[in-house]
Amino acid sequence: MSDIQEAVREKYGAIATAVQKASASSGCCGPAACGCGDPITSNLYSTAETNGLPAEAVTASLGCGNPTALLALEAGQTVLDLGSGGGIDVLLSAKRVGPTGKVFGLDMTDEMLALARENQRKAGATNVEFLKGTIESIPLPDNSVDVVISNCVINLSNDKDAVLREAFRVLKPGGRFAVSDVVVRGSVPADVRRNMELWVGCIAGALEETEYASMLQTAGFNNVDVEPWRVYNFEDGTFASAFIRATKPAAKAE
Q1: From CA 22, how far away is CA 92, in angstroms rounded?
Q2: 193-250, pLDDT tens digit by residue?
Q3: Domain 3-247 is in which class?
Q4: Could you tell me where the beta strands, DSSP code E, fall in the chain?
């Protein structure tokens, strides 16, 4: 495991543990790292979406968007969430694909997987499976999912080309890539790129908008669209939460 992967695993494992402890005592917003009031992670889901979800799934949501709102999921589809954390996007997707569909959540952090599986139990979601693994090496077969989603996770990887290649591999022909992620506008100073705490906090590892699009195209995707929707001006540069969409080309007729 790389230094960056280990740092991410440790940080998000600690957040999952903090969420569980807070739930057992005072409820939401116990850990500061939950993002309560954070401009990046706040107000991403409607009350109608979060009603009925376990409070811990909502509390542990550390994303920068709502990927389940990027496209219409259909009954019977198979969905994969890269870096599924506490499981909020998996559970929302599970409602939309229904009992004939399936949603996989992939995470490398034992504590987050335990939290997500407990949230699954509380939600009574029978069409959900949480897998342990890395987003650079997805433990699913080729051409096995209809939609890949992710919420502010791909920027954490130090091998984004591998992530996008793997997403392309597991998608069925015609499958959709619908991701929320942080992107950068302009250059990021080298010292910020080297700073591990900023990396696991979703800034130092962010790609520039056109670079993200280029990587998707290199991986084989078409209909690529990177749409920034919340822009943040920091001392070290300008960043944005973005909706990122792409399609795996449909199979050619014989």
Answers
A1: 23
A2: 666 556 556 666 788 899 999 999 999 999 999 998 888 776 666 888 899 999 999 9
A3: alpha beta
A4: 78-82, 102-107, 128-132, 145-151, 171-185, 207-208, 222-234, 237-247
